[in-house]
Amino acid sequence: MAALISLMAFETADFKYQNNYFPGNPGQGTRNMQSASFNLLYAKSIPALAPSVAAITGGSAIGALSVSQLNQVRALLTGNDDYDFGSASWFLTTQCSTAVRTGVQTGTLAGWQTYVTDCIGTTATSDRQSIWEVAMQEIG
Question: pLDDT confidence of 22, banded at 50, 70, 90?
Answer without folding.
Answer: confident
